[in-house]
Amino acid sequence: MGNDPSGFGTKAVHAGEGGRVPHNPSSTPIYQNSTFFFDDTTSASDIISGKKEGFVYTRSGNPTIKAFEDKMAALEGGQAAVAFASGMAAISAILLEVLGPGDEILSCRRIYGGTIAFYEKVIANINGSVKYFGPYEDIRERIPALVSKKTKLIFFETPSNPELSIVDIALIAGLAKKYGLFSVIDNTFGTPYLQRPLSLGIDCVVHSATKYIGGHGDAIGGVIICSKAFAKKMRTGMLLDLGGCLSPFNAWLFLRGLKTLHLRMDRHCETASELAVFLSKRKNIPSVLYPGLKSHPGHAIAKKQMSGFGGMVSFTLENRRACGRFIDRLKMVRTGVSLGDAETIALNSGTVFYSGLSDAECVKKGVDPVLIRVSTGLEDAGDIIRDIEQALKGV
Ligand SMILES: Cc1ncc(COP(=O)(O)O)c(C=O)c1O
Questions:
Q1: Which pLDDT value is given to residue 6?
Q2: For residue 240, with 0-12 CB atoms within 10 Å meaning exposed, 13-18 middle and 19 or more buried, which class applies?
Q3: Which one, of 392, 353, 388, 370, lies nearest residue 318 by Cα?
Q4: Domains of the chain, with CATH numbers?
Q5: 257 lines ligand 1 (CB under 6 A)
Q6: Does any ligand 1 atom lie closer than 6 A to the CB of residue 222?
Q7: 104-108 and 80-84: which strand pairing?
């Protein structure tokens, strides 16, 4: 594009697309090829050394994937982006790129369980360690108390999966700069439409593109957005070495999904807010967690750093039996592990992943066994709420 689009919706539609593609197609084509032929050995060596622009092998780059990366960089306001095969491929690549043997991570305790599993299984294997801070501790005091010579990176998520806890992004970015730590935020729940952490001083944003970025539950992928220098390091380092590259077809699905991100997020936010208000007025629901509710402990910070409160609502029931009955009574709303799709999805981990653990064992693992996470979909809000209401009547 010759002109620089400034509105979010305009970028969502146009950024990254076009390029110099023959025939002027209205959507970026899928370059479904593994390798790119070189014109001759000189041009091959120029492309490989980075002297000349071009592609070599889809594991390190491809025009469809690049279009997706460029759109993500424009939406997050970053210099560059690198796509991966999944959110976990992206998170693991960042951690392995930045951390050496014996290094330490400072991490918020309230993050996606898969990231914690990676700390425990893989980071521990390279003699790395993790120190945790809670979202509602006094972060200004807690982080300086935890930093040591070994600390290299700070990782957090806001809103977090599944409790929707909120962390002050600018505060973390400032502390990371002060102590020389590389700061990484998982912005899967926030999306670049609702918050842009790079503008608040964060070094690297990561997404499970599988969720709101794709938005249709049909592709797994991940992406990081960061400086040009870090993107280059990742592309020539962990992307190439671990090999967790995105497929061109999934990149195309994400490009298509992103064109409606702003519209979908507006609808998700409206419905989630309506659902949260409905749930908070009902009896027998001990807690409703939605950053848009004034009762939410992170409401003031969410209001400061987000332009909307997101499409996820979590709430608790009195016991696991009630959670199981609620989930099993749902009719239109489905149960499953993903989120951010057109369909409303409800999940209670206590009856699915942790059914073999006692409540006390769940709590020890940092899991609330009676929490139900709802990813509000794009159906009519009234239909979603009616289904949830009828399911609640039976518990
Ligand atoms: C917040 C968050 N980050 C990362 C991931 C991992 O992403 P993926 O499933 O694409 O590997 C998930 C998956 O649910 C998630 O919810």
A1: 83
A2: middle
A3: 370
A4: 8-258 (3.40.640.10), 262-393 (3.90.1150.10)
A5: no
A6: yes
A7: unpaired
Q: What are phi and psi of 2, to 5 degrees?
A: -75, -40
Q: Give me the DSSP letters along 284-346.
A: T---EE-TTSTTSTTHHHHHHH-SS--SEEEEE-SSHHHHHHHHHH-SSSEE-S--SSSS-EE
Amino acid at 366: G
pLDDT at 2: 42
* Selection from 255, 252, 247 nearest residue 61 by Cα: 247
- pLDDT-derived band at 1 (thresholds 50, 70, 90) equals very low
Asked whether 161 lines ligand 1 (CB < 6 A), one says yes
Q: What is the DSSP letter of 119?
A: I
DSSP, res 235: I
Q: Say if residues 231 and 85 touch (Cβ distance below 8 Å).
A: no
Q: Is the distance from CB of 189 to CB of 161 less than 8 angstroms?
A: yes
Whether the CB of 188 sits within 6 Å of ligand 1: yes
Output the CA 87–ligand 1 centroid distance in Å: 5
Residue whose CB lies within 8 A of the most ligand 1 atoms, among 95, 208, 345, for a mutation test = 208
- Structure confidence by residue, pLDDT tens digits, 10-62: 999 999 998 778 899 999 999 999 999 999 999 999 999 989 999 999 999 99
Residues near 272 by Cβ (< 8 Å), separated by ≥ 6? Answer: 290, 292, 309, 310, 311, 312, 313, 374, 376
DSSP element (H, E) containing 184: strand 182-186
List, for residues 83-106, the tens digit of each pLDDT value.
999 999 999 999 999 999 999 999
Report the residue count for the chain.
395
Q: 64 in the Ramachandran plot: left (φ > 0), alpha (ψ -120 to 50) or beta?
A: alpha
CA angle 143, 298, 220 (to 5 degrees): 85
Q: CA 29, CA 180: separation in Å to the nearest integer?
A: 42
- State how far the Cα of 157 lies from the Cα of 108, in Å rounded to an integer: 7
Query: Is the CB of residue 190 below 6 angstroms from any atom belonging to ligand 1?
Result: no
pTM assigned to the model: 0.97
The response to whether residue 183 sits with its C-beta less than 6 Å from ligand 1 reads: no
Paired sense of beta strands 312-316 and 371-375, if any: antiparallel
